Amino acid sequence: MKMPRRGWSPRSSAGRRSSMGCWMVMSRILSLSRRMGRPGEDILRPGELYFQYYFCISFIQRLYMYNPLELRVLTSFLVLADELNFTRAARRLNMTQPPLSLQIKQLEAQIGAQLFERTKRSVRLTPAGQVLRAEAEKLFDIEHRARQMVTQANRGEDVGHLSIGLTAISAVELVPNILRRFSARVPGVLYSLREISSEAMLQALLRNELDVAILRPPVTDPRLQARRLMSEPYVLAVPVDHPLATQRKVHARDLDGQSLATLERRFGQYAHDLMMTWLAEHNVVPLRMHDAARHHAMMSMVAAGIAVSLVPASAAAQPIKGVVYRRLADRDVPALELWVAFHKEIGNPMTLPFVTQAVESAAGYKIGAECFGG
Questions:
Q1: Do β-strands 160-166 and 309-312 pair in parallel, antiparallel, or remain unpaired?
Q2: Least crowded by CB within 10 Å, which of 216, 315, 341, 369?
Q3: Verdict on whether the full-model pTM lies above 0.70
């Protein structure tokens, strides 16, 4: 981080540019000292602060309407943390020592923690001060990157690249919804989409071949982090002329003796095991078991009248000629979870903003009743 030089002032144009946006996340930064030592709570990651900056960029334009005291105080804190001398820090800030001392006292009062240990001969940071300094420095770096990216976007330039792994079902409706909203907020991103199995996505994340993956659980590798997007029940896909197609809802017992099409277990172990366990609990014995490596191939067998298939509910959003979908009436119908995963060592500043958008979009996602003939 580049610290303010001699002659720098928070009221100067350079000072305003380097301080821009701080007020939006000030309250979260100030809470860091209180969070130290609390079990189960993580310090804010820089990516999370970046997300706030990027999507609050419209508020930055109104920054000058607000009291600049908080901006000056945070900048003063960083300069003093760098100099560890009130006289030199005040000189760099083009102010006298008493106002600087007052600003630091106000900041400590607002935080509720001491940031500096002061003696007649020395000034040094407390543990709380060290935390605030580290996070504030990240904040200024993030703000600088955000400003650069917004400028590029306004010029119509590419602002970055995002490599996304996804399942075939998520590509039907959820992922387009996520991409539509994210692209509206962050224009100019270049996308690379890969439709592969959840197991393959995990390996691709570890090899840094993907920035983010929309997949089925589990995600157990400690190097990866995941957030839950949604949970959806199984529904039944049946040929349009199948006897079960005349029923609005079917039960597990209706599948006994039917030919069943499934994905190969190696291409979806979690979903396959969940489905087969449920069928076994209901003593369902399929007449024949057909398998396929991809969802579209499996649905081709259903459309051809060869078999029925249990699929995630969101698959019903994609009409396929010769196929209808019916809800399962059993109370214990298993629900498939969909997660979004990414590497903990985030190298792409687009990753966390996209993850947050994915969570937001999934929260409002619903399957229309018309998908089931209702």
A1: unpaired
A2: 369
A3: no
Delimiting residues of CATH 3.40.190.10 domain(s) in the chain: 160-227+341-352, 229-336
CATH topology of domain 160-227+341-352: D-Maltodextrin-Binding Protein; domain 2 (3.40.190)
Tell me, what DSSP letter sits at residue 113?
S
Please name the helix (run of DSSP H) or strand (run of DSSP E) that holds residue 165, with its range, or none: strand 160-166
Distance from C-alpha of 233 to C-alpha of 252, rounded to nearest angstrom? 13
Cα(273)–Cα(279) distance, integer angstroms: 10
CATH 2.60.40.10 fits 71-149, yes or no: no
CB atoms within 10 A of CB 292: 18
Delimiting residues of CATH 1.10.10.10 domain(s) in the chain: 71-149
User: Residues 6 or more apart from 11 whose CB is under 8 A from it?
Assistant: 68
* pLDDT per residue as tens, the chain (374 positions): 444 444 434 444 434 433 333 433 334 433 433 333 333 333 334 344 444 444 443 333 333 333 434 667 888 999 999 999 999 999 999 999 999 999 999 899 888 899 999 988 889 999 999 998 888 887 776 666 667 767 776 776 667 889 999 999 888 889 999 999 999 988 888 899 999 999 999 999 999 999 999 999 999 999 999 999 999 999 999 999 999 999 888 999 999 999 999 999 988 899 999 999 999 999 999 999 999 998 999 999 999 999 999 999 999 988 899 999 999 999 999 999 999 999 998 888 899 999 999 999 999 888 877 777 65
Which superfamily does CATH assign the domain made up of 229-336 to?
A: Periplasmic binding protein-like II (3.40.190.10)
Report the run of H or E that residue 293 belongs to, with start and end: none
Phi/psi at 304 (nearest 5 deg)?
-80, -5
